[in-house]
Amino acid sequence: MRFPLLGALLLLLLVACDNPETTSLPGVEQALTPEYGDTFIEASIGDASTLLPVLASDSASSDINGLLYNGLVRYDKNLVIEGELAESWQISEDNLTITFKLRKNVKWHDGVPFTSADVKFNYELYIDPHTPTAYAESFKQVTSVEAPDPYTFIVHYDKPYAPALISWGMSVHPKHLLEGQDVTKSPLARKPVGTGPYKLVEWQSGEKIVLESNPDYFEGQPYIKRVVYRIIPDTATQFLELQTGSLDFMGLSPLQYDRQTDTAAFRRLYNKYRYLNFGYTYLGYNLRRPLFQDKRVRKALSFAINKQEIIDGVLLGYGVAATGPYKPDTWVYNPNVPRYDYNPEKARALLAESGWSDSDNDGILDKDGQKFSFVIVTNQGNDLRSKTGEIIQRRFKDIGVEVKLRVIEWATFLKEFINPGNFDATILGWSGGPEPDQYNIWHSSKTGPRQLNFIKFENAEVDKLLEEGRRVFDQQQRKAYYDRFQEVLAEEQPYTFLYVGEALPAISKRFRGVDPAPAGIRYNFTEWFVPKAEQKYSR
Amino acid sequence: MLQYLVKRLLLLIPLLIGITLISFVVIHLAPGEPTDLQTQMNPQASAELQERLRVQYGLDQPLYVQYGKWLSRLLQLDFGESFATDRRPVFDKVTERLPVTILLNILSIVLILAVSVPLGIISAVKRNSGFDRTTTVFVFAGFAMPSFWLALLLMDWFGVRLGLLPISGLKSLGYEYLGWGGQLLDRLSHLILPIFVSAIGGLAGFSRYMRSNMLEVVRQDYILTARAKGLSERVVIYKHALRNALLPVITILGLSVPGLIGGSVIFETIFAIPGMGKLFYDGVMMRDYPLIMGILVMGAVLTLLGNLLADISYALADPRIRHSQQGEG
Fold this sequence. Notes:
The structure holds two protein chains of two kinds. Helices cover 25% and strands 21% of the residues of chain A. In chain A, strands 13, 14, 15, 18, 19, 20 and 21 form a seven-stranded mixed beta sheet that branches. Chain A contains 15 helices and 22 strands. Chain B is an all-alpha fold. At the A-B interface, strand 10, helix 5 and helix 12 of A face helix 2, helix 3, helix 8, helix 13 and helix 14 of B.
């Protein structure tokens, strides 16, 4: 939660590791043979809350759980689904049944073999009404499951459900340790037992979490012996620690990346990487407010915002303009939607067309005696958002729209503003993953209290497209639906899509095998290694 | 004396209940519930989950029922379980953070006393001298300086540039493998910066206080008498004046007892120290009611006991008070 992006389509975090046989290491490093040993130290701004993935919803816990547990499937480096605990799978002709063949050589960290009974138990665990999990939704689409033999697992659906396959990428918990117990009181929350490449050795609350490589991991023991998460809540402190070389990984802020790491000393120790994040920041309009019901007004506001100026000013150029809810380098992204490049004349014209004019010459537009004036709310603790708000405020003033900006503490923000729909416009962000289903955010059935379509966007065509989009499995067919979905959003402008930021990690040069890909940078962590001569920590 | 003590202790009970009642109501007045924060804005979480969590946490019941339940558990010394996803007992969460917080606070108070008492005395004795003025400027600069800024400067200087001291945390990575002496040295080196930074802000108050006490006492008739007896200035100041000037310090020490378990969020955040301040702050941000209440109750008990302790030690140290109480009681 470095930039507390809303939401947590944590599916992204399942991207943990890759198959060692299939990867070749890039460039000069090809000459080096991977060697075992050394410790990878990174910092987290918050402590993990629980190491039971079914209960965890914070990013610190999810990061660590990604190394401790496996799912049946995962995304590979190019975001194509591949088997993890499942060796292979088959989807029936009617798209209603998935049959997984499970790997046979997998053991839990305590030595007990992993079987289909564990998978079946997991399904039951996730949908159990007594389990307070945030991940039950996709499993509720399942009608029944079967485990005919220890290495076969079959799932049935009554309607085709496209996100079905990747939903089985959710972490699998050990049946033999959890069955018949209250999961919220399980000791596994602090002493996890998974199947993953690393095991927990030590957890000192608020201080550090230490993992050690699993020698019996089914894809082979990872090269890096230990992974240490130090809890350092302040990013300035993290950055100082990084400069002394005591951290091996840190996600830098644009300022740190651009201005503060351009020294010989830093370059000697670290490689810097940059790639686009999943997730975007937007200005969302409350469509129940009369002010924003005219599409031309929303379009005018989009034209009045200079997205590039925000990217340059707030992200120092480390980002791209967003045109819709998808990341520009993914298959689902539609590059041909109408763009709203900065054009104040067009904005003024559109506003005039919808009846707004400055009749009293006070510099603010009015209509029927009402001034064009509204409040943008955003949450405290995210500097990027409040700065974005200030830039937008100035641009809106240029076209005669008066905006006040209010920054509010998160809990209050949700309770008093977002939940009761008591806001004009809001600057927020969504984080996402490769799965394009956006039903929960845009479908008109999701406009109820505490639901995610809190701007109350209701569009019959979008409803239909979202329903169809989750019913077909073929990527080309799905793309047709989501392309049109993006067109409608671009035309309607319920949000002004602002920007997609970049991830800017710095990684110690000791580590080889780092290979940024569409899946990010950590997907092949189990293949990273340090040549013996450069290993820094012997224990 | 004993009777007085019992009376005071009994009076604490209604006071404590009043404090918990007000705290309980006030924290529930803050908008937002823990369940909102745990489930909202998560595309995967349903509205039923939220309802289920509210029932699990007992948030669906009226406030007075919640308070009654909480109070009856408290009477059995059970602080309940945290609302955070780990659902750990509040007592465990607090006690694992107490040792570090108390250690830091004690060391910092010791440092403050060790520096500010002599500073105050000398400033008083040599009132308006160059020394007095310099220390005044110094302690007020320390008081006015934002601690996070000072901390970052020192970390950059001693940690990054000079490489003399560790930047954050309490122990180095290979701590377990160090010998006995190495471990001690490692711990100490991690404590130097935090203690220095936390003490520097407290110097001003204490040394000023000491100075004005001393000035007050030096003006008293008995000091004049002592001087008239022909005692040396040393004996006058350090024996006759100091003892009396130190009396009010007892009160201050008593009042700082609750401060021992308190911590500063900013300070703990910067030095990455898992202390009480951060725990409480995170608890408030997450609306973790049992945790907030637990810490508040412990703080309240310590404040009340600290006051009582201060009164008692005052009575023990100052015959005037002791006698007047006996007269009453």
